[in-house]
Amino acid sequence: MAEAKTKAFMATLEDTFAKLPPLSPSVREVIVTIAPWLALIFGVLGVLGSLSAFGLAAVFSPVAALGGGVGMATTFMVAAVLSLIYSVAMLVATPSLFKKKAFGWTLLFWSEVVSLVAQVLYFSVVGVLISLIAFYFLFQIKSYYK
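-> structure tokens emitted (146 positions)
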């Protein structure tokens, strides 16, 4: 049941992004070539940033609680957890992306879904736009992953 809903969700997004102008094959090949490296770089940076955010939250949460900012501290921790989730997903996807396996593309897709959810939760219009652009590129290169 869940797998059918997942496939339907992905198919809906794919149909939506298929209506946009396609990239040329040469641009797609460049994206497929650099995608594993981008996933590796941003995955490592995201994990390091998330761990730093946990450290900062641990230091400043008591101060925020004293000032009545418990909600802000909680929001900061949720952001750090979501960032850690999508960063680890990118790192796990990297070997499969180098081998052009569908598993890597799927992990990258779900990483972007988590990122989009985080951007929506924090009302980041720029973040949502970046996520939508990332989905466009992801669906442009999907056919290269088997």
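The two ends are 23 Å apart (CA to CA).
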